[in-house]
Design goal:
This protein is mainly beta. It has one domain. It is built from 1 helix and 10 strands, in the order αββββββββββ. Strand 2 and strand 3 form a beta hairpin. The two termini are about 20 Å apart.
């Protein structure tokens, strides 16, 4: 946790321009290896784990959502005797193309850590989840899920 906070501080400081103002929210990108396998408070979970859906967004490839609908969700549930949140894509997913990641903010969304992306590496139409991170009653610690599906760019849920 201290490592992530230091990382967020460094990223936020580097976003400050000579005049002393921030151009855009700071984003600290973490590779899958930085938030998988029990690293930095994250835990691996099964792609098939389902919890309570708290945010949901239909995303798809091409211009027609009915062509290849994919559901992006932010979920939470009991993982290792602790409530944790994660992002998940499921539906008509494509291997080696579709990606999902979870943004975690410690300051209410002004800056965040991007955990992932986790890329689909299995058969079509199977879900993909991110690693899970502990939830908190602190209103500044929030989550959102983001996905890149085919050629449609990036879409994210609202913060939870």
């Amino acid at each position: 946790m201290k490592t992530f906070r230091r990382l967020l501080t460094v990223v936020a400081a580097s976003a400050v321009i000579g005049g002393g103002f921030v151009v855009s929210p700071a984003i600290a990108e973490a590779a899958e290896s930085d938030c998988a396998g029990g690293v930095n408070g994250f835990v691996d979970i099964s792609d098939y784990l389902s919890g309570t859906v708290v945010r949901s967004k239909r995303v798809s490839d091409y211009d027609t959502p009915a062509w290849r609908p994919v559901e992006l969700t932010v979920q939470h549930g009991n993982v290792g005797d602790r409530d944790r949140g994660w992002a998940k894509i499921e539906g008509w997913t494509e291997p080696y193309i579709d990606e999902v990641w979870m943004d975690v903010t410690f300051d209410g969304g002004q800056s965040w850590l991007q955990c992932g992306p986790f890329r689909k590496m299995t058969a079509e139409n199977e879900p993909v989840t991110t690693a899970a991170y502990p939830t908190s009653p602190d209103p500044n610690i929030r989550f959102r899920g983001c996905a890149s599906i085919g050629t449609n760019g990036v879409e994210c849920t609202d913060w939870w």
